[in-house]
Design a protein that fits this description.
The complex is a heterodimer of chains A (about 270) and B (about 290). Helix content of chain A is about 80%, strand content about 0%. Chain A has about 270 residues and is mostly helical. Chain B has helices spanning about 40-50, 70-75, 95-105, 110-115, 130-140, 160-175, 185-195, 210-215, 230-235, 260-265, 280-285; strands at about 1-15, 15-25, 30-35, 55-60, 65, 80, 150, 180-185, 195-200, 205-210, 220-225, 240-245, 250-255, 270-275. Classes of the chains: A mainly alpha (about 270), B alpha/beta (about 290).
Chain lengths: ~270, ~290
């Protein structure tokens, strides 16, 4: 089992290193410019006052997230860049993990080994979760030493809370794609539902923010439960959000396993 | 005693019946050939044996264990070669062998296999030729001296010399009581290696025969160019069938032993002679209509 877990991690090692490095470099960039942004707080406030409130709300633009370190990284790095990287990594990893191996025919090698389908399925899942966890930790926690390097004061707990929230989000996307990967035989067919979910969630969240009468739609969006601003800036860890992510992940994991255990592998 | 028992195995793909209630047994130490044209159901049978696919009905018993219910325990005893070898392109041969050893334990005969098959495991799979990929797949199947070998057209891509090396390993394993299930569409290969053979056609077992009986079903396609008269009456005695006839040229299908035909041809002045073994499809048309 350990061999399959290590194999899964090893196969995504390069992508993991590239994405984590990019994330750290972007984080470093925002850390470096934060002192100059803080010094221009008044002029930025004047600029923001000229925009409609709904527009600013829709794009999560507020004074604090244009001038404070945690506000800047929450709105710029973790609301957009990190989400794109995490979704790309989760989908590529999960779709390639089972469906990709079936498509290439290499699943035959693994199925011919004296491993049960349960061992194979969960080894691959654990390997994927470890990759997602390493990426999440490497792309968020370096913010603490970087902030110290530039003399920026912050509450370390906020970073830990956000790491948990982000990990929940990453696990949710990974497991959702992994479920489809266990059902279908082509990686593209596992990728499509996950991309669809992210896109629909994004649109629902946007509509909910722009139109007050549709505000309840936000509960149907995964982005409502992923909240870098709330955790990094305000230090609020929504346990319900975390439980929701993990609860759905467990559900997807079980559904995927039921199909994986019973399915035919045609090569 | 039967080591592999296939009992009324049936498999549907949607509404298409890929296997139609097939049954046969393979004994301990036996090299059992599984012959059939492409699409007959050979790979589907093997996929059921390996628990890659679930049978719609019926059962596969290996070593008295259900291949579907106890596949994990069984795979410890099975070496497998697929008809389409798919390997990790970015891995080396050694990476593949290490994966096997990390799960099945250290191989006692790996060094010998690498030498006999002239395989360099340090090369990345993407740089290997088709033949070398096949060698690696064969080595992976043999390296733990399995009690059962399930082979789906295992010599595809191997050159004739290495095919002989492979056959000698099969005979050695069978002598040590390993049971070998060998799928092929090459009649000559099955005749050369196997003790018994099952013939599958359109998902149904047409016959299970010993190789000696199978040899009686050999057929040759002969083209003869001659001068003078040809003793056609003697062809009838050989149960040969004339398929085409031109000026001093004749094409015949001859079943059974080719030596009897050569005795007849010894009395004829030949200009040219071409003898080839009939394909499995042609034999099927003749014997398993």
């Amino acid at each position: 089992m350990l061999k399959i877990i290590l194999k899964t991690i090893k196969e995504k090692r390069n992508l993991l290193l590239i994405l984590s490095s990019i994330s750290i470099l972007v984080l470093w960039l925002y850390t470096a410019i934060t002192p100059s942004l803080e010094s221009q707080q008044e002029s930025i406030n004047e600029l923001l006052a000229a925009f409609p409130k709904e527009f600013l709300a829709a794009f999560n633009v507020e004074s604090f997230n244009m001038t404070s370190f945690t506000g800047v990284i929450a709105s710029k790095q973790y609301d957009i860049v990190w989400v794109i990287m995490a979704v790309a990594l989760a989908i590529s990893l999960a779709s390639g993990n089972i469906a990709g191996e079936i498509e290439k025919g290499t699943m035959q090698i693994l199925l011919a080994l004296p491993l049960s389908r349960k061992q194979l399925y969960f080894s691959k899942y654990i390997g994927g979760i470890i990759v997602m966890a390493i990426f999440t930790v490497l792309s968020i926690l370096p913010g603490i030493p970087l902030a110290q390097m530039y003399g920026i004061e912050l509450d370390n707990n906020n970073f830990y809370y956000f790491t948990l929230n982000a990990l929940g989000f990453a696990i949710f996307i990974f497991t959702f794609t992994f479920m489809f990967s266990a059902i279908v035989s082509e990686s593209s067919r596992a990728t499509m539902p996950a991309l669809g979910l992210v896109l629909i969630s994004y649109i629902l969240n946007l509509i909910a923010l722009l139109k007050e009468e549709f505000t309840n739609l936000r509960y149907f969006s995964i982005f409502h439960y992923y909240s870098p601003t709330d955790t990094l800036v305000n230090g609020n860890l929504e346990l319900n959000s975390l439980l929701l992510f993990l609860g759905f992940a467990c559900f997807f994991l079980i559904i995927g396993f039921v199909f994986f255990r019973k399915r035919d592998f045609r090569f | 005693m039967a080591e592999i028992e296939i009992k009324e195995l049936t498999k549907f793909y949607g509404t298409k019946k890929a296997l139609n209630s097939i049954s046969f047994e393979v004994g301990q130490g036996e090299i059992f050939g599984y012959l059939g044209p492409n699409g007959a159901g050979k790979t589907t049978t093997i996929n059921c044996i390996m628990d890659f696919i679930k049978p719609t009905r019926g059962q596969v018993l290996i070593n008295n264990l259900d291949a579907n219910e106890q596949s994990t325990a069984l795979k410890l005893l099975i070496g497998y070669v697929s008809s389409d070898v798919n390997l990790y392109e970015h891995w080396t041969g050694k990476d593949h062998l290490n994966l096997q050893e990390s799960i099945r334990g250290k191989s006692r005969i790996l060094t010998r296999l690498l030498k006999d098959f002239q395989f360099d495991p340090s090369i990345t799979v993407r740089k290997l030729s088709t033949g070398n990929k096949q060698k690696l797949a064969v080595i992976m199947a043999l390296m733990h001296e399995p009690q059962f070998l399930i082979l789906d057209e295992p010599t595809r891509g191997l050159d004739p010399l290495l095919q002989n090396v492979f056959y000698s390993y099969l005979r050695e394993f069978a002598a040590k009581n390993s049971t070998i299930f060998f799928s092929s569409h090459n009649l000559a290969e099955v005749e050369n290696v196997c003790d018994r053979v099952a013939i599958i056609k359109e998902g149904k077992i047409e016959a299970v025969e010993s190789i000696s009986k199978m040899k009686d079903k050999r057929m040759y396609l002969v083209t003869i160019s001659y001068d003078g008269e040809f003793p056609k009456s003697k062809l009838r005695e050989l149960k040969a069938v004339i398929t085409a006839e031109y000026d001093h040229k004749i094409k015949i299908k001859v079943p059974g032993d080719v030596n009897k035909l050569l005795d007849v041809l010894a009395t004829v002045k030949l200009n040219d002679l071409h003898i080839e073994q009939a394909s499995l499809e042609e034999i099927f048309l003749e014997y398993y209509k």
